[in-house]
Design brief:
CATH topology of the largest domain: Alpha-Beta Plaits
Low-confidence stretches: none
CATH architecture of the largest domain: 2-Layer Sandwich
Number of domains: 2
CATH superfamily of the largest domain: Lrp/AsnC effector binding domain/regulation of amino acid metabolism (RAM) domain
Number of strands: 4
Largest sheet: 4 strands, antiparallel
Keywords: DNA-binding, Transcription, Transcription regulation
Shape: elongated
Structural class: alpha+beta
Strand order of the largest sheet: 2-3-1-4
Mean pLDDT: 95
Helix content: 25-40%
GO biological process, one term: response to amino acid
Order of helices and strands: HHHEHEEHE
GO molecular function: sequence-specific DNA binding
Oligomer: single chain
Distance between the termini: 9 Å
Radius of gyration: 20 Å
Strand content: 15-25%
Pfam families: AsnC_trans_reg (PF01037), HTH_24 (PF13412)
Protein name: Transcriptional regulator, AsnC family
Length: 158
């Protein structure tokens, strides 16, 4: 799908405020409300807008620990990759999981209430997955930059 400047403006504004009314959105992108709504629906149907959500504050909800975890697997365990991916789906502490290049096979982003909770997660869940060989934890001390918005400069412009 080819995006034009108006589409990019719509996407930028919706990323900043997913609850903006169609009327306000239309005014800000200089369209009629019906034209604006039609464009938003096209962006949704094309999968460019995949969903709407609220961004929660982990700290205010008692999740004090944010950890990036590198996991290295033993390759001699049958179906290690499929099994690992399946088991992760049942662990609410894992809020992001990625197959990566480098020394480890996976990078996980884990949220935990505190160090005790994280330690229990590693010892009672992660290390018990068949094939896990090594776990390296990187605890976030302070977030310098974190955004959920895709920068407009990286989006396609028709």
């Amino acid at each position: 799908m080819q995006l034009d400047t108006i589409d990019l403006n719509i996407l930028t504004l919706l990323q900043q405020n997913g609850r903006i009314s169609n009327q306000d959105l239309a005014e800000q992108v200089f369209l009629s409300p019906s034209s604006c709504l039609r464009r938003v629906r096209i962006l949704e149907e094309a999968g460019i807008i995949s969903r709407y959500s609220a961004v929660l504050s982990p700290e205010k909800l008692g999740l004090e620990l944010d950890v990036f975890v590198q996991v290295t697997m033993r390759r001699d365990v049958e179906s290690w990759h499929e099994n690992f991916m399946q088991v992760l789906q049942d662990y609410p502490e894992v809020v992001g999981s990625y197959i990566i290049t480098g020394d480890a096979n996976y990078l996980l982003r884990v949220k935990a209430r505190n160090l005790k909770h994280y330690s229990a997660f590693v010892l009672e869940k992660l290390y018990k997955i068949p094939g896990v060989q090594d776990i390296r934890s990187n605890i976030v001390l302070q977030a310098i930059k974190e955004t959920y918005e895709l920068p407009r400069e990286l989006l396609r412009d028709g």
